[in-house]
């Protein structure tokens, strides 16, 4: 209302009440700008470092003195990078698809079905969120070893094929799907799996998109577990592979940053594909309005 | 199309029984409305017929076949929900076609059926729209279309008009009634609105606290209410209930007024409630039963509701809209003896 009704002061002066609003706006823009700078700086340094010669890497200047694409040539000519890139793509994609399926299936079951022990199962799943990854790597490693999964895609992927966070997220979103939809589908002759797939899943697309982004990014950038479970250079993912650039004496930051810069491209693609689903809210449109 | 029978149906949640033995026969093609206040068990009964709630005990038969242990899809029913429940991510056409998904009908026949239903519901030009592009009334029509397309034995409507505005509700009421005349399927319709029940039903089932209070045609439940609950629930404004004493066929009201009621069951209780509808109370009647002062007027156009303070409490009557009495006027109110109802004041059951 304050913006609509002009103050007495504003009515007396020729300039309408613009100044206070402008001040507020300036502060808001300034804060957003600072936030933006904070977000962009690491990315800018990444790009900047990837364009520097090794001797300039430890200078803080953002604009390289002698910009070069030599690092890109080196990284892209190094055959291993493509392999790590492919490994990361395969692992992140399969893990994301599995998460979307399994998390939503479990989330849906916990949300829409009443069965004894439902609450206990849910709490048990949630409680795994409280255990840090560092504690889990040893049991995971022993399991991988027992199954013969060391140094394989399965070994890298299996701990993340389903996540407690994703299950929780999907369960919460399914709470927003009215039971009437599910009952209507039941009367229309669908079985429970068909209801989940054709009725409930399309209604939680925004959540699926968010989960896809989280899981893909999480797996794309995962470092500790892939480092532990892989032995051969051919099985490395990008973060593990990049960390190996350089030798014992010196870390080749310019090459790491170059690899990192290239490896952000798929994450951008994933984000651009899925973000439009996040914006679209569809659930309520079929109900009373 | 088929008849429907409920045999001693009960429903319990844990140890709490919410439906206490519902028995009802619905004839093939009949339009039956379940009406009652919130929590009376009408929606639960409907959901049990649909197979969405388990039956604790009792039998549900559709077309002579017991359906207790059948899945909703095997019961040959279709349901229209209060919230419409049309799928927002599908077009109107897909929504309607959804009801035919599991049918083995050839594709061409399915298409024909969809067009036919769209034609009946006047939605042919809306088929490609999404639900978000439809008005409330149109959405409700899509929901009805989805139910109709399967040509079920029994249609179940769960308060389908509650979310519509008053004008649209009246219109949809008429449309559903016309639709019933046209397609002739058995319909079970749940509502808490007694006007909907009166205007649409072939028969009304009035429920309270998990019991059926009365089953009858709209005329029967209005003119021959089985108990004080039905008397109060059906009709607006409600029936006036005046306490009195019964002596043979003579009812003594307060202030020594007495009325002879020919049809009253003799030998019943002495403490009774005398019921009379506002529509049946007339000023300067040949059979005066009450006198009092007008305290309030509610003009409705054709008629005016008058609130009269009498020795038996405040009562409501209807007067002519053009020439009503004024506030403060002393009036005499009377009714024909055949329009008076006598109820046992302890049990509430009708004695006439």
Query: In percent terms, what proportion of residues of chain B is strand?
Result: 25-35%
The third-level CATH topology of the largest domain in chain B is: Rossmann fold
- The number of distinct structural domains of chain B comes to 2
- CATH class type of the largest domain in chain B: Alpha Beta
Number of strands of chain A: 0
Please identify, by name, the CATH architecture of the largest domain in chain A: Orthogonal Bundle
The CATH level-2 architecture of the largest domain in chain B is identified as 3-Layer(aba) Sandwich
Instruction: Count up the helices of chain A.
Output: 14
Report the top-level CATH class of the largest domain in chain A: Mainly Alpha
Strand order of the largest sheet of chain B: 6-7-8-3-9-10
Tell me the major beta sheet of chain B.
6 strands, mixed
Radius of gyration of chain A: 25 Å
Give me the CATH superfamily of the largest domain in chain B.
P-loop containing nucleotide triphosphate hydrolases
Cα gyration radius of chain B (Å)? 24 Å
Helix content of chain B: 10-25%
Could you say which structural class the secondary elements and strand pairing of chain A correspond to? Answer: mainly alpha
**Domains counted in the coordinates of chain A: how many?**
2
Distance between the termini of chain B: 38 Å
């Amino acid at each position: 209302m304050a913006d609509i009704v002009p103050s007495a002061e504003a009515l007396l002066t020729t300039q309408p009440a613009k100044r206070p609003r402008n001040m507020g706006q300036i502060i808001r823009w300034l804060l957003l700008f600072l936030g933006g700078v904070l977000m962009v700086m690491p990315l800018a340094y990444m790009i900047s470092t990837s364009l520097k010669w090794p001797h300039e890497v430890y200078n803080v200047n953002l604009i390289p003195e002698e910009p070069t694409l030599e690092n890109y040539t080196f990284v892209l000519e190094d055959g291993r990078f493509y392999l790590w890139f492919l490994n990361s793509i395969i692992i992140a994609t399969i893990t994301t698809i599995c998460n979307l399926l399994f998390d939503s299936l479990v989330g849906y079951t916990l949300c829409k079905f009443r069965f004894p022990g439902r609450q206990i199962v849910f709490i048990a799943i949630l409680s795994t969120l409280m255990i840090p990854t560092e504690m889990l790597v040893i049991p995971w490693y022993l399991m991988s070893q027992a199954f013969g999964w060391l140094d394989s895609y399965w070994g890298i992927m299996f701990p993340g094929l389903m996540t407690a966070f994703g299950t929780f997220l999907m369960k919460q979103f399914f709470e927003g799907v009215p039971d009437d939809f599910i009952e209507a589908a039941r009367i229309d002759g669908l079985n429970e799996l068909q209801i989940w797939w054709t009725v409930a899943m399309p209604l939680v697309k925004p959540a699926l998109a968010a989960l896809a982004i989280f899981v893909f990014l999480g797996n794309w950038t995962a470092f500790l577990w892939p480092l532990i479970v892989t032995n051969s250079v051919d099985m490395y993912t990008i973060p593990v592979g990049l960390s190996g650039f350089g030798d014992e004496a010196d870390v080749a930051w310019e090459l790491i940053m170059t690899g990192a810069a290239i490896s952000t491209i798929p994450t951008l693609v994933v984000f651009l594909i899925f973000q439009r689903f996040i914006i679209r809210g569809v659930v309520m449109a079929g109900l009373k309005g | 199309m088929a008849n429907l029978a409920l045999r001693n149906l009960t429903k319990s949640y844990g140890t709490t029984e919410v439906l206490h033995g519902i028995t009802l026969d619905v004839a093939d093609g009949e339009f039956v409305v379940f009406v009652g206040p919130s929590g009376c068990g009408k929606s639960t009964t409907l959901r049990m017929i649909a197979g969405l709630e388990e039956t604790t005990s009792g039998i549900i038969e559709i077309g002579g076949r017991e359906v207790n242990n059948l899945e909703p899809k095997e019961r040959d029913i279709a349901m229209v929900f209060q919230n419409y429940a049309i799928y927002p991510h599908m077009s109107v056409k897909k929504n309607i076609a959804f009801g035919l998904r599991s049918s083995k009908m050839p594709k061409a026949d399915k298409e024909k059926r969809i067009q036919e239903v769209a034609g009946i519901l006047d939605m042919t030009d809306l088929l490609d729209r999404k639900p978000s592009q439809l008005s409330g009334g149109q959405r409700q029509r899509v929901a009805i279309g989805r139910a109709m397309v399967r040509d079920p034995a029994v249609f179940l409507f769960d308060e389908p008009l509650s979310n519509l505005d008053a004008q649209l509700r009246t219109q949809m009421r008429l449309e559903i009634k016309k639709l019933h005349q046209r397609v002739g399927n058995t319909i079970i319709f749940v509502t808490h609105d007694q006007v909907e029940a009166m205007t649409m039903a072939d028969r009304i089932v009035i429920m309270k606290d998990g019991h059926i209070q009365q089953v009858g045609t709209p005329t029967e439940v209005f003119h021959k209410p089985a108990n004080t609950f039905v008397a109060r629930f059906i009709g607006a404004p409600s029936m006036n209930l005046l306490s009195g004493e019964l002596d043979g066929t003579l009812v003594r009201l307060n202030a020594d007024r007495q009325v002879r009621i020919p049809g009253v069951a003799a030998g019943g209780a002495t403490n009774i409630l005398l019921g009379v509808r506002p529509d049946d109370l007339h000023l300067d009647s040949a059979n005066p039963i009450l006198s009092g002062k007008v305290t309030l007027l509610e003009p409705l156009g054709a008629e005016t509701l008058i609130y009269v303070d009498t020795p038996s409490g405040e009562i409501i009557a209807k007067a002519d809209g053009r020439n009503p009495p004024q506030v403060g006027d002393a009036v005499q109110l009377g009714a024909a003896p055949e329009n008076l109802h006598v109820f046992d004041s302890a049990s509430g059951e009708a004695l006439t």
